[in-house]
Amino acid sequence: MIRLAALIQKGFWRSLDWIYPPVCASCGQPGDRLCGECQSEIKFITGHRCASCGEPMHRPNPCCDACQLRPPAYTAVRNLAFYPWP
Question: Model-level pTM?
């Protein structure tokens, strides 16, 4: 039963790709939903982060200067990576 569901899902996405061919979400290049060139531009965030906004920080403070001066209305946000949009 699980294998049948997986085959149906795979067939659905293949037919959808045939009707609407995938293009890169960033640059619009046909072929992939995110092309290799755009994938290589993604920089994963490592190290210290602000506990409120998730901005990378160079020192281990709980919050960045911007959040200390004006605390955001939300509790916390986490960013996985930065991507320089074209």
Answer: 0.52
